[in-house]
Design brief:
Length: 138
């Protein structure tokens, strides 16, 4: 099976977690920082925020696709991704908690949608087996 590239987003970072990152087309340009005592300097963001934003948007599209396939109302659904930087004896890693809020669905329907979307979403496919991803329904 041959894959067809639909879009490529390109970004360059300089200065690591205390530097700057921007996309080649200028659509994203951010100063990066590392929170101190849980507080991030105003006007800065983290790689975890950027990852969470992308994952939430991508997963939201998967929720919409699954809703359409299953003829379920996901029009008011929202996806929240909490991406955590973790440190252990073996080094740094990421963990994700993915929460689906779908007011028009029962808890069972929302659970069915989140699980199916997790199989479909490209971010979920990329992270599967690499980082812990917790699924939750609100």
């Amino acid at each position: 099976m041959t894959a067809t590239t639909l879009f490529t987003g390109t970004a360059t970072a300089k200065g690591g977690r205390h530097g700057h990152s921007a996309t080649s087309d200028g659509s994203v340009s951010v100063d990066l920082g590392m929170p101190k005592n849980g507080v991030l300097e105003p006007g800065k963001t983290t790689p975890e925020h950027l990852f969470a934003t992308g994952y939430a948007a991508c997963f939201g599209s998967a929720v919409e696709a699954v809703g359409g396939q299953k003829k379920l109302d996901v029009s008011d659904a929202s996806v929240t991704v909490a991406a955590s930087l973790q440190k252990s004896d073996s080094g740094f890693s990421l963990a994700v908690k993915l929460t689906l809020k779908a007011p028009a669905l029962s808890k069972e329907q929302a659970q069915e949608v989140i699980e199916a979307a997790h199989q479909m979403c490209p971010y979920s496919k990329a992270t599967r087996g690499n980082i812990p991803v917790e699924l939750a329904v609100e």
